[in-house]
TrEMBL record:
Similarity section: Belongs to the WrbA family.
Signal peptide: none
The Flavodoxin-like domain, residue ranges: 4-190
GO MF annotation, one: FMN binding
GO cellular component, one term: membrane
Database matches in SUPFAM superfamilies: Flavoproteins (SSF52218)
Pfam families named in the record: FMN_red
PANTHER family assigned: FLAVODOXIN-RELATED PROTEIN WRBA-RELATED (PTHR30546), FLAVOPROTEIN-LIKE PROTEIN YCP4-RELATED (PTHR30546:SF23)
Name by which UniProt lists this protein: Benzoquinone reductase
Organism of origin: Tulasnella calospora MUT 4182
């Protein structure tokens, strides 16, 4: 059975919603899927000052856990056009896996969230690719897997690099129904690609 990990970081629950949507979509395809959070790097004091809500009760991923899965759906918030520091810290902790190439021939895809339409969703995906390349992880983009990608009737996040949402500059905007639908398609597309490889192997 194909094993997929949905791995996210979320400060104000936007990426949590995206991750849960992706998880539901992978499970609908009958794969073994689990959801994890990357470790928090901010102190409780700082989180309180930022008015961050409590974290969801999902397990915290550790680098060694990555070896148990065939593919990863990374749900990554953007900070200045790249992955937030919590994700960067987690990636930096995988040096031992890199040394043994333990993640080679695994698969990954990226779903993002930004505060604004031009906040760097594509650059977040692009600047995450070096991590994949060093580990030998195969990147699976969304492409234009659904006609919803061409929707011009409403504000829409994401693109061929991957699905996403726009949180608004103040974090008040929640993922739209259209964005969540594309997240579902993205997850199904990723599962299909990874499952074909697993079955062929």
């Amino acid at each position: 059975m194909t094993k997929i990990a949905v791995i996210y970081y979320s400060l104000y629950n936007h990426c949590k919603t995206l991750a849960e949507t992706a998880l539901a979509s992978t499970k609908a395809d009958g794969v073994d899927a689990e959801i994890y959070q990357v470790p928090e790097t901010l102190s409780d004091e700082i989180l309180a000052k930022m008015h961050a809500p409590p974290k969801a009760d999902y397990p915290i991923i550790t680098p060694d856990k990555l070896t148990e899965f065939d593919g990863y759906i990374f749900v990554i918030p953007t900070r200045y056009g790249r992955a937030v520091s919590q994700f960067s810290s987690f990636f930096d902790a995988t040096g031992g896996l890199w040394a043994t190439q333990a993640l080679s021939k695994k698969f990954a895809t990226i779903i993002t969230s930004t505060g604004t339409q031009h906040g760097g969703q594509e650059t977040t995906a692009l600047t995450t690719l070096p991590f994949f390349a060093h580990h030998g992880i195969i990147f699976v983009p969304l492409g234009y897997a659904t006609p919803d990608m061409l929707n011009m009737d409403q504000i829409l996040a994401g693109g061929p690099w991957g699905a996403g949402t726009l949180a608004g500059a103040d974090g008040s905007r929640q993922p739209s129904e259209l964005e969540l639908r594309i997240v579902g398609v993205h997850a199904k597309h990723f599962v299909d690609v990874v499952s074909k490889f697993v079955k062929g192997a």
